[in-house]
User: Fold these one by one.
Assistant:
Number 1:
Amino acid sequence: MHRLLAQARAGRPRAVGRLVSLVEDDDPRLPELVRALAPGSGRAHVVGLTGAPGVGKSTTTTALVTALRAEGLVVGVLAVDPSSPFTGGALLGDRVRMQEHALDRGVFIRSMASRGHLGGLAAATPAALRVLEAAGCDVVLVETVGVGQSEVEVSACADTTCVLMAPGTGDAVQVAKAGLLEVGDVFVVNKADRDGARSLVRDLRTMVSLGSPAEATREPGSPWRPPVVQTVASTGEGVGELLAAVRAHRESQQASGGWQRRRRRRAREEIEALALARVRRRFRTLTGAPLDRLAEEVGDGRLDPYTAAAALLDGAPTREGPRGRSAGGAE
Amino acid sequence: MHRLLAQARAGRPRAVGRLVSLVEDDDPRLPELVRALAPGSGRAHVVGLTGAPGVGKSTTTTALVTALRAEGLVVGVLAVDPSSPFTGGALLGDRVRMQEHALDRGVFIRSMASRGHLGGLAAATPAALRVLEAAGCDVVLVETVGVGQSEVEVSACADTTCVLMAPGTGDAVQVAKAGLLEVGDVFVVNKADRDGARSLVRDLRTMVSLGSPAEATREPGSPWRPPVVQTVASTGEGVGELLAAVRAHRESQQASGGWQRRRRRRAREEIEALALARVRRRFRTLTGAPLDRLAEEVGDGRLDPYTAAAALLDGAPTREGPRGRSAGGAE
């Protein structure tokens, strides 16, 4: 483990990949790894890229990598796939477009599925980010594969979240319905050379300026107003402006204190997810399989699930100690 | 509450709607409600409908409602929207296609968002199903809105899961990648009159017969082989065959014991979700806001999240009792 960590710190891609695998699998050595990584972590700017399939997330990611590499920065790409039963390996095979960066020692590309991690995305993503940071990444691009709630969850791991859209892949109302208006720090209309781009930009600007849901969840008192940037990621057009907007967001956040508040909120979610994963693990390793017995009674309609949940907690204290008052009675 | 419950049992739609709202909001009276509903629950056949946007889930649901109503059965429709920040009301407005059933006293239609429920979908959906059962539903159709992991989660609440596809909305490989091959008990190729339907049916049949992932998660020793049914839901074509396949699945499951095993597994997940929600609630109501303090330390890189999680559990025992050995040391 320590050898692996030393190799990852030296920027050896294979070691980085193996450490992310430990995260995916919720390996028993993970706490030790994270403890070793924690001091000094938090240096990299974590940029989330999210949006419906077909908007050009991979192409935009690749274009951003090219731009960042041109400045000599070390870049990590974490493609998070919360819904797939397949692990990273399979997905990596698809990422043909990333091949131009495959041999670059300053780029680390890794896919991650989170099914194996009891703490889910909220626990797995920050741990993987720490690995990429340890490898020296200045910026980590977190790209979500798939859609749905997971998109919103992944954005919670980013310092700056870019919400991507493109003409013909849904309108601004759908973005709002998916809850993405609330999480976007920068909105990107990709494929801006296509029909319908102009009206998409206009609709987005209107919705962002109305901004009621965004105001509620974004840092209170933040002076940041999410811009709408136009790109043609396949040609690189507008990618410089996108990068400038992402950096302007960081500066604004750091000046307002929002940066630190958001990182603390992320830490809060990570801690909670790890604590809950630990409780869940205890449920499953209780002797006498009380969860199975309770499930039988609830499944057959002999017991209600709330009483069963209280009994389960009663049998699985989160810390050791003599049996006291029942959890059922205490609430 | 008891009056509301009595009204719901008498089939009053407004009371049913209000009880589902209690579920959505994780109302403090929910345990009481679920305790009252638990005895005798489990009568209805819960049928999940899942698939990518555009495959015709709503149209298929409507066609199934028509077919079931023709037999005089009482039908519930639960449209679960895990990703939307909007609650049921807003969505119901969209469901123009359902209007033909809106005045039918034998049909209960309700959308449900689950963001308000600390236990998430795993806890909210079974509670909503119990409400619809209490209203007398013989069959409840659970339709997911949106895509992603949530689809797979919702299917976990169904006795029989129908995975829908249509020509032009993605191929069989995408269904496999979304993890839907594993959860399908019946596969439906809707819009079967369109180009590409035949090859879609063929591909699906091949993948289902290969069926390696399905075998792993489906009931061991189950004699059920998921059929591929073709429908044109908008005209009602094939809907009778679909209903027959759904019922054949129930009979096969009941004969093999898979029915009961699956319901117990669902109960297991529900209990666990409720127990974890309770732990989470305790984290958030701890005096002295230790979670905020720990998040600050982890966010600033002064503490690692695993040690923080252990400290959080140490301060928030799941049952009352004198302080014993620390949870951190016990694992």
Number 2:
Amino acid sequence: MDLRAEFRRWKAQRLSKADLSRKGSVDEDVVDLVRLLNAREQFFTTSSCAGRILLLDGGINGFEVQKQNCCWLLVTHKPCVKEDVMAALKKASGDAVLKFEPLVLHVQCRQLQDAQLLHAVAVDSGFRNSGITVGKKGKTILAVRSTHGLEVPLSHKGKLMVTEEYIDFLLNTANQKLEENKKRIERFYSCLQHALARETMTESHPKIREKDSPACSKKARNTAKAQDTHVPEESEKEIENDGDDDLGISVTLFPEDY
Amino acid sequence: MDLRAEFRRWKAQRLSKADLSRKGSVDEDVVDLVRLLNAREQFFTTSSCAGRILLLDGGINGFEVQKQNCCWLLVTHKPCVKEDVMAALKKASGDAVLKFEPLVLHVQCRQLQDAQLLHAVAVDSGFRNSGITVGKKGKTILAVRSTHGLEVPLSHKGKLMVTEEYIDFLLNTANQKLEENKKRIERFYSCLQHALARETMTESHPKIREKDSPACSKKARNTAKAQDTHVPEESEKEIENDGDDDLGISVTLFPEDY
């Protein structure tokens, strides 16, 4: 079976399966992006989480406990108020931790070059911890990840270690990150539309070169960077040094006035 | 110029350059790993941070401020005590945030298959957010990343929002994560040695197949997973469903008694 046919078979198989997540459906904020990807023959999504605020009751000292034993006290994809967290914390008996987790999206790609395009778009949209996985049999998956998280221990052995005022302040930060995450998803959607349109155009008119189009990816990337203080300096340096010329993240994605 | 020669040239160029990080040298905990990689002709490291606890004085509400304006009040690669943080916090005038950042390592690889091998080893050692970047000209880099962080807002407009007791508790958690990160680096080093020895052996004796060797990567992976509650469920599912057969993370890396 040739690569295209095999990919089509995988895609059909995957998209026909039931959604096995706890929620059982794709998160609202990421539905358009998931649809856009699945409508293209070279992509299909294998998992997604739009971003969420969650309160976990871990075992004592967090990471010593198996994930399956870790209890979710609260999960929300929407901004969250102090009262919700205070009520959920009453059920905590171990070390409760509040987290903000940004978008995580896994996309299977037909060929490495499809993953490269998507990777470039993801990084330019602010999802700078994205990366490709290539399996032994050539299965190619792009994981879209952000550096933009939050992880805050709140209680120890069931005892609250912070004040209500702090939780209020913390949720303000978490809600802002949720909002910024939503903007990045919208930016990703818009960038992807442009990149796919450009790709289609280049395929039908191979003489159109990238540099003839308005260049604005660098601007977009810098906007995303400016709002992000999370990546270690070394990693930042890496992306800055090598990004523009060689890492495939210089595709032009935005109109000048974005 | 052929691929091997070009890669050799890149490597020589990179390794002859001065270390441009603030610290100016490779972190102690990662020196052996960096040496092991740079001693192999198919790899060279382009940046590394072994893992650290840091206190940043961000602008108000953290991510609104450019990275270059964000002030480092404290950085340490060693366990940290409350007194250090309390002293550093006195200099905070904006929104101070305490972070634990695990290992980040960027490794340029000669070919995609070299990156695949390294990726498999990284994931099996617990660095589950690792991913490959392939540039337009084929430059292939593996970023080794963990899910194992911590990010805690401590003050707002210079005002401390938590108690000293909380900072003590928080540092206990951060120090444990630093310790666990160190174990993962050691596991990565050991796994990599095995994988490279196996690769060399397979090259000289192509009949030796993986399944003839003691299989223990799954065990190692599960150990790493059990200590990690950070990855969103969907992403976890993805790795679990596809990992063993297709994502190249079933290479056998550990001796049975690891």
